[in-house]
Amino acid sequence: MKGFIQTLKNIWSLQELRDKIIVTLSLILVYRFASYISLPAINMAEVGNLLDHFQKQGGGKQAAGLLGLLSSFTGGAFSHASIMALGIMPYISASIIVQLMGMAIPYLQKLQKDGESGRKTLNQITRWLTIGVCLVQAPFYLGTITQVFLPYEQFRSAYYIDPQSIAFYVPSVVILVAGSIFAMWLGEKITDKGIGNGISILIMVGILAGLPTAFLQEFTTQTGNGGLGSIMILIEVLFWLVVILLAIVLSVAVRKIPIQYVSRAHATGGSNRNLLQGARQWIPLKVNASGVMPLIFAQALMFVPGLLTKFDDTNTFLAGFKNPFSWQYNVLLVILIIIFSYFYTAITIPVNQMADDLKRNGGLIPKVRPGQETANYLDDILSKITLPGAFFLSIFAILPALVHGGFVQTEGFSHFFGGTSLLIMVGVILDTVQQINTYLLNHHYDGLMQSKLSRTSNL
Predict the structure, then answer these.
(1) Of 9, 118, 225, 348, which one's alpha carbon is 20 to 30 angstroms from that of 332?
(2) In whole angstroms, what is the distance from residue 347 CA to residue 359 CA?
C-alpha cells in the first residue's frame, strides 16, 4: 500500500504528467456534460418517463439487444436523445472501414506505408468518412426513437414539434453530426494533450457511467423482497473481480517465439578476425491478437437476425435473436466471434512482412529457414493460438447471459461481467497505466542524467 501511495505522489510530482492528467479529466467532464444536453426539439424530462414506461412494458430486452451496445458506449446519451447520442461510434465505424478498405485499395496501402505523412492523410480520410457515417446513422436514429415512443399517446409532450416533420429531422441531423464530430475532436485532443488514447478513453467513460446505476439497481433487487440478500452482493463483487483478472490475463497473454540476431564483432586478444555473436530475443504473438474487434463485428451483425422478425413476428425462434440473453443469440454470437477472430488476425498480423524484416535485420528463428519458411512457421503458430484466444473471447462475450441466468438479478449489472464493455475497460486501463509508467521511467532516467551532469560540472 505504501508503494502505491508513493507511486501516486510520484505521478503528481511530475508537472508534465500532472498537466496531462488534468487536461484529460477536464475534457472527459466536457464530454459527460454534453451527453446530458438533449436535442432542442425534445423535452429531456419526458424522455426519462418514456424510457421508464418502455421498460415496464417489456421493451427492455429488445432495447438491450438492438440499442444497448451503442447506449453503453455513449454513457446513456443514445437512449436519452442527447446531442451526443451517436457519440464516438461513427468514428470507430469509419476507422474500421478505412482499415478494411486498405486491403483492397492500392492508394490506401501506399498511405499506410508512407509514415507520418500517410498517417495524417488517412486520419483526414477517416474524418470525412465519419461525417458520411453520421449522415446515414442520424436519420435512422431519429426514426427509431419516434417509432418506439410515438405509439404512447400520453407521451406526445416529449416533442416540442412534430417528430415526423422536416423541421424536426433536418436540424436534429445537423446537431447529431456536429455532436459526433465534437466527440471525435475531444478524443483527438485527449490523445495529443492528455494521457492515453482519447477515443478509447471516451468509450470507457461512457461504459463506466452506467456502472453505479447498474450496481445500485442490483443491490436494491438483491436486498429487497425476493432477493438473495447482501451476501449475494459480496459474492457477485468477488466473482466480478475474478472475471476482471481473467480479462487482464487474456489481454496480455502472449506466445513468445525465440529469435536469434547474428552480428559481427571484433575478437579480443590482438586478433583481427571477426567472430559471430548472437543476441537472443523474442517475438511476442498475442493469444488474442484481434482484441475486441471480432466481438464488435459479431454484435454488429447480430442486428440482422433480429430484423427478420419484422417479416415474421410470430416465429419464436427468430424472436430469440432480439434477446441478448437467449440461447439462439449467444450460440450465433460465439460462431461469429470465432470466424471474425481468424479473419481479423489474418488481415492485421503481416507474417510475410515480419519474416522479411527478420531476414533484413539478420534475425532468424532457430531451426527455421529465413524467408517464406519463417512466414509459414509464424502463420502456423498464429493459427494454433488464435483458436484458444477466440474461445476465451467467446466465453467473455456470453458471460453476461450466463450470470444473468444464474445469480445476477438485473440485466444492467450483468452486462459488466463480460462482453465488449469489460474487455474495452480492461484494455484501455492497461494502456493508460502503461503510458503513465513510461512517463515515470523517463523521469527517472532524466533525473540520473541530470545528477551525472551536475557532478561532472562540479569537477
Answers:
(1) 348
(2) 21
CB-CB contact of 283 with 354 (8 Å): yes
- How crowded is the C-beta side of 430, counted as CA atoms within 13 Å? 16
Number of C-alpha atoms within 13 angstroms, CB side, residue 282? 7
DSSP class of residue 152 equals -
186-221 pLDDT tens trace? 999 998 888 888 888 888 888 888 888 888 888 888
What is the chain's length? Answer: 459
Alpha carbon separation from 4 to 1, 7, 10, 48, 431 (Å, rounded)? 5, 5, 10, 41, 18
Q: Is 75 exposed, middle or buried (0-12, 13-18, 19+ CB in 10 A)?
A: buried
Supply the mean pLDDT for the chain. 77
Q: Is the dihedral of CA 50, 56, 57, 63 positive or negative?
A: positive
* Among candidate residues 159, 375, 161, the one with its CA nearest the CA of residue 283: 375
Domains in the chain, CATH or no CATH each: 1-209 (1.10.3370.10), 222-459 (1.10.3370.10)
Unique residue bearing C-alpha cell 427492455: 60
Residue 158 confidence (pLDDT): 65
